[in-house]
Each structure stands twice: as structure tokens, then as C-alpha cells.
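Check this.
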Amino acid sequence: MTDTTAEDVRKIATALLKTAIEIVSEEDGGAHNQCKLCGASVPWLQTGDEIKHADDCPVVIAKQVLSARPKLHAV
């Protein structure tokens, strides 16, 4: 297994958040923003940030990683 730094984890989480949401067209001409991972969605007029993801969705974990403050290590 490779050594992964905290910065590497943050980069992966950021990439996941940027790629997890897609715009899905509907047959009636409408559209919605949908998570590719858990399937949760919101109408087109709402942003992907407003999606209520499943509790075990990787997007939820990625958001937690990015909102966590880095811990300072005592020397």
C-alpha cells in the first residue's frame, strides 16, 4: 500500500466532489442534478450542493474530509 498524505486525501476528496454530480435530461425537456454514486437528485433550478445524499455516499465522506481542520502536531 502506498503512503498517502493528508494533502493527497484532500485532493482526492475535491476531485470526487467535482465529478460526482451530473446533469440528467428528462424526456419532457426538463433536467435535474443527480449524484452518480447514490442517485440522489434535485431539480435543475437547485444546485448540486443542495442534494441530500445517502448517509453512506462517498460524497458525504468527501465533504467531511474537506471540512475537517488539519491537526497540528506537537514537536
Remarks:
- The mean pLDDT is 89.
- The first helix runs from residue 6 to 19.
